[in-house]
Write a structure and sequence with these properties.
It contains ten helices and no strands. The protein is mostly helical and 272 residues long. The protein has one domain. Helix 3 runs parallel beside helix 8. The N and C termini lie far apart (55 Å). The mean pLDDT is 84.
Length: 272
């Protein structure tokens, strides 16, 4: 038989050249279509849950397995990151996006002349402040998720610099960066549903500087602990250098998030 996909000689149930399954006209039934769809869904579901479980419980192991060729049971790094990124659309508190009120009220944002920029945009678009605020807040929810992929090459380069002596290929650092950002998204989702939302619901306020400071410190501590374990596993680095590297990334992480938030502000106000 000949493979319907690539034309190669087909001797088994699957083509050795392209992986296409041998065609059988009896499969063109509603029953087979539904069973195949369900099988694909549950297969995806199992791989996703396995990947998330290993990502959380065994830091660095999945990245190590991927670079060593053990890839069948888990989702590809970028695929997993993209799915987790999509899940942010369903989370009320997006850590990468802020409302316009934050940009024109709090430091360090107002240091970048945000108030004057917003006033200029309102005047130029002949729109009321309330209408512009609603438009901005809706836009940043989607834009923040569209550009989050920039973190992957950025942190891949950071990990490359930190572990240049290990002489790993750049692709390995990209894999590790994907999993690191995937972990942070999961941490953000957990934080949003089980910490932030309950606190503000009980406190009956929209913002608390003390709570924000405690939350930032707590998330940094989780990042430090996770990266320390992941770096020990993936890079086989010493205890001392793993701690220094993890602490450096954890301490600077929210500094880079602030720059990312400012980037989003200028994208929306200047180019959208």
């Amino acid at each position: 038989m000949v493979c319907k996909n690539c034309g190669s000689n087909l001797q088994e149930n699957f083509c050795a050249h392209c992986g296409e399954k041998k065609f059988d006209e009896h499969e063109l039934t509603v029953k087979h279509f539904l069973s195949e769809t369900l099988e694909s869904f549950f297969h995806f579901d199992n791989r996703f849950l396995r990947s998330v479980k290993k990502l959380l419980l065994k830091p660095g192991q999945m990245a190590l397995d991927f670079t060593e060729g053990k890839r069948v049971r888990f989702m590809k790094p970028l695929q997993l990151f993209l799915i987790l990124n999509i899940s942010l659309f369903f989370v009320p508190g997006n850590p990468f996006a802020l409302s316009l009120n934050n940009y024109v009220t709090y430091k360090p944002f107002i240091n970048y002349n945000t108030r004057a920029i917003v006033a200029e945009e309102i005047k130029k678009n002949h729109i009321s402040p309330a209408a512009y605020t609603n438009r901005f807040d809706e836009k940043i929810k989607s834009v923040s998720k569209e550009f989050i992929f920039l973190y992957i090459p950025f942190y891949a380069f950071v990990f490359f610099l930190l572990f240049v002596y290990k002489k790993r290929k750049l692709a390995g650092h990209l894999v590790f960066a994907c999993h690191f950002m995937g972990f942070y998204i999961l941490l953000s989702i957990f934080y949003s549903f089980f910490v932030e939302m309950p606190f503000y619901f009980l406190a009956k306020t929209n913002y608390s500087q003390l709570f924000d400071n405690i939350s930032t410190f707590s998330v940094q501590a989780f990042i430090l602990i996770y990266l320390f374990a992941a770096m020990r596993k993936f890079y086989k680095a010493s205890v001392t250098w793993s701690f220094i590297s993890a602490a450096s990334v954890a301490v600077s992480f929210f500094i880079f998030i602030q720059y990312y938030r400012m980037l989003l502000f200028f994208i929306i106000t200047r180019f959208e």
